[in-house]
Amino acid sequence: LISAGKDQVKKHKSKSVICGYPISIFFIVVNEFCERFSYYGMRAVLVLYFKYFLKWDDDFATTIYHTFVALCYLTPILGAIVADSWLGKFKTIIYLSIVYAVGQVIMAISAISDITDTNKDGTPDNMTFHIALSMVGLLLIALGTGGIKPCVAAFGGDQFEDHQEKQRSTFFSIFYLSINAGSLLSTIITPVLRAYECGAVKQQCYPLAFGVPAALMVVALIVFIVGSGMYTKTAPQGNIMVRVCKCIGFAIQNRFRHRSSQYPKREHWMDWAEERYDKLLIAQVKMVLKVLFLYIPLPMFWALFDQQGSRWTLQATTMNGDFGILTIQPDQMQTVNPILILVLVPIMDSIIYPLIAKCKLNFSPLKRMTVGMFLAALAFVAAALVQIQIDNTLPTFPSKTQSQAKFINMLNTSLTIKAGQNDLELLPFKASDDYLTFDDSFILNLGPGVDQAVSLPDGNRSTLVIIKDGREFLNGFEKLLNVTVGNELFESIVTNNMSGYINVKKGNAVFGISDGVQTCTYQLTLGFGSSYTLIIPPSLTFGQECGGIESEMDISPNSIHMAWLIPQYFLITAGEVVFSVTGLEFSYSQAPSNMKSVLQAGWLLTVAVGNIIVLIVAEAATLEEQWAEYILFASLLVLVCIIFAIQAYFYTYIDPTAIEAQFTKREPDEKEKRKSIEMVKKDSVENHNEKRKASHSSSSSSDEETKQTRI
Known about the structure:
Blueprint lengths: L8 E2 L6 E2 L2 E2 L1 H21 L1 H8 L4 H30 L1 H22 L16 H31 L7 H31 L1 E2 L4 E2 L1 H21 L6 E2 L5 H18 L21 H17 L3 H7 L5 H6 L5 E2 L2 E2 L8 H23 L6 H29 L9 E7 L5 E5 L2 E5 L9 E3 L3 E6 L2 E5 L6 E7 L2 E2 L9 E5 L2 E6 L13 E8 L4 E8 L4 E5 L14 E6 L10 H24 L6 H25 L5 H25 L5 H11 L3 H25 L4 H12 L1
Parallel strand pairs: 9-15
Antiparallel strand pairs: 1-6, 2-3, 4-5, 7-8, 9-12, 10-11, 10-13, 13-14, 15-16, 17-18, 17-19, 19-20, 21-22
Family: Belongs to the major facilitator superfamily. Proton-dependent oligopeptide transporter (POT/PTR) (TC 2.A.17) family.
GO molecular function: symporter activity
Main location: membrane
């Protein structure tokens, strides 16, 4: 879409056509479907990969996620300039698709923990290696997906002849449908692939979740290359954006040179470019700048909108995704957006807008965009309300100057814990009811006259197990015990020792416990997000079921259902439909015919800046509560919405075609000039012949007529 201008086309001698459409466009549509599946599939699980595989905190994961998205929307400008100025669209798509596919493969490799997990505990031993691979992969993906973004649609449009306007219009509709189909299917499928367990230590399968999008990108590249012989390819003719930038730069430079008061002022600062550029181009640049000025507040909308893949996905990880027979993964909630788009776009166009028109309300494009921004702000208010309810169900974690601990007594005697004025008594083989918060160290009384001072790191939440030799966990039985989950060996736990945590699917979990001779089972119903500690005392009895085991809940299950996220997704999607679709339509209606690409570049730039705003807020804001951050974003968007409404109030709609026509009349194009000259020559010759037949004129008169003929 950024690629502009009427290029010189290298036409084939014959072009294969099916139902009036060039066969080449089918390769382009399939290519776009696979590429969008690859991009959105990888992006759907990206923030969870940062959090659970690379072990980054929520803020840093959000920062890197939005940095990546911002790069994806900055590189289209580079891709358009390269395609139009040097390589052409076809070669640009080929070369950058190779870069893209390599980046996806690198991302899939970076997620394989077994590469550096020498001790097979499920955690990479060299995390720096995996982080470095991930960053290289994301950088290549951003360069690839952004670089081809402006080329593919324009390349598809090049496949049609001038008399195929109807087919070209239908192609763009099918092209847009392929984008939505790819994004919808990928956001459904890749979270399911991620939820599979794989590797030497069974855990979430990020290599598969990234590997399938990588394979689809390779397929996209192969499909595009297969159709190479059928394409109509255009030669690079220069990029209009470069010309616009040079014109603006010269106007600024020239104005600065003539800043003295002795030079007369001009009506508009762009008029200072008249010394080098024609008035038509300057008038077109003025129209573009007028719209770009309106774009200044728009990044704030995208700052909220793109948090669906970061903050809102992380929000869903603390909620219950049980939908009866279906279990929804947190990253699958992103599918609500494309589904609602398919529903809301026809409703808005066929019902809502016509009803408003019948009510004789002036619901202009800029007013629609203002409403869209307000709906997005409401969506974040809804997100804040949901977050408050979630926070009420979550444990109260310690501040940066405090510590928390839960105690489990594995001794066959009672213990006393002294913290300030409060004493806690622990019975044998029992745990404290909840986590205790400490500002300083505390005293652990292990018996008469035996006191031990314990100090915990600030900001930590710990489970302390008291056994004979110190703080460990958690097999009090006199023999080594093998614990299995399903058919998989969980861990072998020696006497007076502990196991690590293991991820178990929600529902009724069955643990098998064996001492090598006897076997029993222990059942525990697990909810989303819950965490338990199981205590095996010396009094463990074997039978069909294990006797004596006690379970201690460390974190309660997520009780707020993911369905409560649907209202905020509805509001943000309704805002997108009203804002984004209308914004593009408005921009195109107010842009000169040959500079729609410049406004498309400006539109993509607002998306990039919006993501930069998110990463700045995520790193700079000192808000400890997530709901407060949601309210902050909503408040900023409301403020920006008011500013945009004021801009819209004073904006005067223009007709670019009429303005261009004024300059066209003054400055005819080359065709009209040639035609005019030919007519003058023809008239002069006819007049000259008639005069020769009528009489012989003087030699001076004859010479003058010959001069006119030559002109």
